[in-house]
Amino acid sequence: MNTLYRVTGSAKISDNIFSLVFDAPAIAKRAVPGQFVHIDCGLPLRRPISICDIEGSFVKIVFEVKGVGTTRLAERKHGDLIDVLGPLGNGFPEVSGRVLLAGGGIGSAPLLYAAVRSGKNCGAVLGFAGASKAILTEEFAAVCGSVQIATADGSLGHKGFVTDLITSDGDYSAIFACGPRPMLKAAVDRANELNIPVYVSMEERMACGIGTCLVCACAAENGGYKRVCCDGPVFTGGEIKW
Amino acid sequence: MVNFAGISFKNPVTLASGTCGFGRELSEYSDLSELGGICTKGLTLHPRAGNPAPRSAETPAGMLNSVGLQNPGIDEFIKTELPFMRTLGTRIIANFSAASVEEFALCAAKLADSGVDMLEVNVSCPNVKAEGLAFGTSPDAVAAVTSAVKSAAGNVPVMVKLSPNVTDITAIAKAAEQSGADALSLINTLLGMRFDLRSGKPILANGTGGLSGAAIFPVALRMVYQTVNAVRIPILGLGGINSADDAREMLIAGASLIGVGTALFRDPDIAGKIAREMKDSRE
């Protein structure tokens, strides 16, 4: 159910990327990594934002300002009330063995909570356009067994694609990926080469967020469309028609 | 209680087709038994996958959609969705469209036999080619579809959902009435477009889509008002209703029932809130 929650912190963490923390015990108690919240920004449609982390009763989201909705969200300050629906959707599964988290840009954010859940039993590979665009690297380093960074311009870590860093090293038993679609496709290809399961978090323009309106369609491998909001946003790599 | 085309509704608030699916997901957020009725997602004879994404774009005070009638088909609806809908404790209005007059009749016969309370004939979907809107813009075509559906529907009342994408909606409304329609619902979405500034391309994969939400409310009021003065059959008024006051305004325009749609995307319980507020103000 949608409820009003108190904002307890907000920050600009990179060029165009903001974090917001709100006190939402009902969401914090139920949320699993990869789920999202649907936030009223005073506009006709809510904005779906992935959960970045949970600490106690506090829910943290990290989002990129892309338009009027996220601009308004970035203006929210400590003490403001926000109307939030969630947690929504299916998150990343609990898997046995080591998990490799592969994040591209703002897609790194939803993987942090997965890292917190897996702890030292996971590794992270995070890709950004450049060093100035890198986010959450310290947070990942604090919880993951290993963190490797890739940047397109080589200003931090490996110069190239984040998916270059998905290798057989590390004995991973699954990959969780979130980022731009071409990166997800590359992550699925790498996982298939390594013969390990891969779970991808998809993004699409949404309206209701609960499965009724059918606008957040994602073409499915076996025909037809899946609803990103409630069949996903996390899918197995094989479910998606790339 | 509202008597509408011979069917009693516990109150005038209904959910608009395409914005509530078959009630399944929404029922977890809202007590749908508080509502007068639910119009199902638009059904077709055969299953439809719908249009590619993106299927929606926000607009000032509204949104565009081009879902393209994604639905499981009438037989699957009757088998898997209708039994659930019957448990919701509200009137079930089956919305459907077809590609020919004969197919409209076949769909109507199947749905009328299934035990739904009313049929809503969609001659106004802007998002599929060669059907829907193509029928809804011609008085002769609406007359032919309405007659065929009425003949096939037996005792189940037939409501025809009209498009606002016409020069004179009263001409279409009269054609439906003269062909036996028991009621009318209006308005469906207004055809619109948005472009992505960076790519220079339409945001919607389908190019165009249907505009809904508060932006179309005054258009809906005007068209309901004009139509009420042109026909004798009752009207379900919808298009951009966001509050109990909006609903009251639609009743003043002459509607007997009102539909809530796009507002559900912001608040899944908004129709329940509207129904409760209208009930409280009557008591």
Layout of helices and strands:
The complex is a heterodimer of chains A (242) and B (283).
Chain A lengths: L2 E12 L2 E7 L1 H6 L5 E4 L7 E9 L2 E7 L3 H7 L6 E8 L10 E6 L4 H10 L3 E7 L8 H7 L2 E6 L6 E2 L14 E5 L2 H14 L3 E4 L15 E3 L5 E3 L6 E3 L6
Parallel strand pairs in A: 7-8, 7-11, 8-9, 9-10, 11-12
Antiparallel strand pairs in A: 1-2, 1-6, 2-5, 3-4, 3-6, 4-5, 12-15, 13-14
Chain B lengths: L1 E3 L2 E3 L3 E3 L21 E3 L16 E4 L2 E4 L8 H13 L4 E6 L4 H14 L3 E5 L10 H4 L2 H15 L4 E4 L7 H10 L4 E4 L3 E3 L16 E4 L4 H12 L6 E4 L5 H10 L3 E4 L9 H13 L1
Parallel strand pairs in B: 3-4, 3-14, 4-7, 7-8, 8-9, 9-10, 10-13, 13-14
Antiparallel strand pairs in B: 1-2, 5-6, 6-12, 11-12
Helix pairs in contact in B: 1-2, 2-4, 4-5, 6-7, 7-8
Task: Describe the model.
The complex is a heterodimer of chains A (about 240) and B (about 280). Chain A is of the alpha/beta class. Chain A folds into two domains: about 5-90, Translation factors (Elongation Factor Tu (Ef-tu), domain 3), CATH 2.40.30; about 100-200, 3-Layer(aba) Sandwich (Rossmann fold). Helices cover about 20% and strands about 35% of the residues of chain A. Chain A has five helices and 15 strands. In chain A, the strands form three sheets. Chain A has a seven-stranded mixed β-sheet, sandwiched between helices. Chain A has a six-stranded antiparallel beta barrel with strand order 1-2-5-4-3-6. The mean pLDDT of chain A is about 95. Chain B is α/β, with parallel strands linked by helices and about 280 residues long. Chain B has helices at about 75-85, 100-115, 135, 140-155, 170-180, 215-230, 245-255, 270-280; strands at about 1-5, 5-10, 15, 35-40, 55-60, 60-65, 90-95, 120, 160, 185, 190, 210, 235-240, 255-260. The model of chain B has no long low-confidence stretch (mean pLDDT about 95). At the A-B interface, strand 13 of A face strand 5 and strand 6 of B.
